[in-house]
User: What shape does this take?
Amino acid sequence: QLRLVESGGGLVQPGGSLRLSCTDPGRTFNYYVIGWFRQAPGKEREGVSCVDSSGDDADYADSVKGRFTVSRDKAKNTVYLQMNSLNLEDTGVYYCAAVSSGPCHAAEMNYWGKGTLVTVSS
Assistant: This one.
């Protein structure tokens, strides 16, 4: 069982940056595919980015391409989501999730964190 913990959310102005972190304090998740998902108020959860177990292959939603970067530091057992040029539509609760293999879709993920809130506001 993984216990994923997200951190790094907060309040930021439009155009600003945040870096989210996802880790499991008690167990390595270096062999899992990690996905970042978000849910805005009144909207359904959507996929943001995924990174494979090696950290070499990553995918992004069209809405964040060129602005967000996902990476993983295996030595620190942590996956990061660097978010730049944030806009109002990026507001939401961001979750990291893990699956041992297979597609990085919300329905396929086996483990979820509790989320961290990102608020973009002037």
